[in-house]
């Protein structure tokens, strides 16, 4: 892939029949070496914003690892708020895929960095239609408590 990108950088913009860009494909198939993800984003940073045609998902919805999530969020942090055609943000999709704690923490921290996500309704929307485990339910109850006890509602970075 790296060799092809050097010779034909526009190859990063090609989509297959499912609307997957090469960035989607390497991530979706679980073979996403960080150097390949970084090279694809360097050639075409807008690839992080592309949605596939099968589910309306960005590459972040499929990110397999903390490192890949970090690269995608650096390219387009707003991806944490992008809903797929089922109404799910990457945090919901990747929770169901049982992503690592570090990856989920990064997504949640980034998601909470947006003031509109620090409301009771936004936090409740994360639970919509999902059978979460007890530990995740406890996490959400802590989020509600933090929201309700902090009138200023600062982000994790404030």
TrEMBL record:
SUPFAM superfamilies: Ankyrin repeat (SSF48403). Keywords: ANK repeat, Repeat. This is Uncharacterized protein. Transmembrane segments: none annotated. The keyword Repeat applies. It comes from the Eukaryota. InterPro entries: Ankyrin_rpt (IPR002110), Ankyrin_rpt-contain_sf (IPR036770). The keyword Phosphoprotein does not apply.
């Amino acid at each position: 892939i790296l060799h092809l990108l050097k010779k034909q950088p526009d190859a990063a913009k090609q989509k297959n029949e499912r609307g997957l860009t090469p960035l989607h494909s390497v991530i979706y198939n679980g073979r996403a070496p960080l150097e390949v993800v970084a090279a694809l984003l360097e050639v075409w940073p807008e690839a992080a914003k592309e949605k596939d045609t099968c589910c309306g998902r960005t590459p972040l919805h499929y990110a397999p690892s903390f490192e890949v999530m970090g690269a995608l969020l650096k390219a387009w942090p707003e991806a944490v708020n992008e809903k797929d055609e089922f109404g799910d943000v990457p945090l919901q999709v990747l929770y169901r895929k049982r992503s690592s704690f570090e990856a989920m923490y990064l997504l949640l921290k980034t998601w909470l960095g947006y003031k509109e996500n620090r409301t009771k309704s936004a936090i409740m929307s994360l639970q919509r239609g999902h059978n979460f485990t007890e530990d995740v339910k406890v996490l959400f109850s802590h989020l509600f408590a933090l929201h309700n006890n902090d009138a200023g509602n600062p982000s994790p970075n404030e």
